[in-house]
């Protein structure tokens, strides 16, 4: 059964916004006193909060599905719907939040940080809020928008000051138990530590945390053992403490060769951009288990070689606590120096300047996509997509209101520029967007002029005939009628028609 989890996929569903209300106030002697439909309430957000009291993601591993409350719908008499309750999820300090594609959203590396990971939907406006001097009694209201629904990834990277690294059974768990009040599992077989352990150490006036990660072995960078998988927990450490086993009975192993293997595996671990590589951080060496006579002699033998490499070496025993006090104070000096550097870096950090967005920012784009039946014009943008989600397409007045909003935003102008014509297929939204057969709203019909520049075909159609032209057209019609009657007479005289047929034709011609 899992007791430590540092990777979790959360399935989140934020609350939907409530629908607005369509209502008309009715009182005695005031049958139509005006619209009084209330607004819908906003859906509840899902917020991540970094809590120092939380040390694992185990609770989210067992219950990964989380949802917040929906907003209430509006009601008459200007009663707005209730807002959905916000859902707070406490996560350990050092949790990195990523989207399903692996892109980092936020690094919650400080206590008390809050991040809205799943925003709730926006409540729809009631018809009272939509009324204006030109639309005094709207017969529609806006719908609430859906809240965020999707997955996020949580990755725990423990925040510690000192990281203990070394071979399995080197005594790291015993050392952290001797230095702090931590109670890790200790046994006489390798890979006893299956998950990182944290301990708090007090050295004089300095308090710092120590992290013990599973042991590293040769080939860990290729997937062997457990240590490399948990090295993310030492990415934030200020310094490294190499715990070397001086009493190992395995053939071919000694403190120097163990250190070389560990350094090689640390060099193979890629740290995130902007962080100091693990081997470039301050490092100390602890030669452990000197309570064993042979181990004490081996520690004295290799000490000079390690110091020649530039390391500070401490001979310790996690069992007898020999040499632990000077080691704890040496680690405290490294932590203090790192904290001073961090304060100086924060003081030199450039100020964040928040600039307002441009007023003429269109907030949307028109993309032309080819299709079997011609081009498809897809409109992408926060405002158009939200407006479509708020529209009740069973209400003609609501659809007209949407058309007015889109035209005022400049959507039709951009469609004209993109080459759209009346009847073109327009999609608002992404994969499951709303499809329209576009009928442009014409204000002056100037948008549809296709004549050469400098000419206007509408002016060519305004030529009125003169009086002489109308007289000539009249005489032409009379001559055509007279010729038709003469043709009938000739046909009768030739015996092609009877007298009755001739008289009927004369009546038909108006004689």
Automatic annotation (TrEMBL):
Xref: Gene3D superfamilies? GTP-binding protein OBG, C-terminal domain (3.30.300.350), GTP1/OBG domain (2.70.210.12), P-loop containing nucleotide triphosphate hydrolases (3.40.50.300)
Cofactor(s) recorded for this entry are: Mg(2+)
Q: What is its EC number?
A: 3.6.5.-
- Please list the GO biological process terms of this entry: ribosome biogenesis
In this chain the OBG-type G domain maps to 160-336
**What GO terms are given for molecular function?**
GTP binding; GTPase activity; magnesium ion binding
Task: Name its cellular compartments.
Answer: Cytoplasm
Name the InterPro entries for this protein: G_OBG, GTP-bd, GTP-bd_Obg/CgtA, GTP-bd_prot_GTP1/OBG_C_sf, GTP1-OBG_CS, GTP1_OBG_dom, GTP1_OBG_dom_sf, OBG_GTPase
Q: Name one GO cellular component term.
A: cytoplasm
**Region Disordered: start and end of each range?**
449-473
All copies of the OCT domain together span 356-440
Domain Obg residue range list: 2-159
Which class of enzymes does this protein belong to? Answer: hydrolase
The residues that the entry says bind GTP are 166-173, 191-195, 212-215, 288-291, 317-319
- What residues does Mg(2+) bind to? 173, 193
The record's keywords, sorted A to Z, are: Cytoplasm, GTP-binding, Hydrolase, Magnesium, Metal-binding, Nucleotide-binding
Subunit architecture:
Monomer.
> What does the similarity note say?
Belongs to the TRAFAC class OBG-HflX-like GTPase superfamily. OBG GTPase family.
Q: What does this protein do?
A: An essential GTPase which binds GTP, GDP and possibly (p)ppGpp with moderate affinity, with high nucleotide exchange rates and a fairly low GTP hydrolysis rate. Plays a role in control of the cell cycle, stress response, ribosome biogenesis and in those bacteria that undergo differentiation, in morphogenesis control.
Which protein are we looking at? GTPase Obg
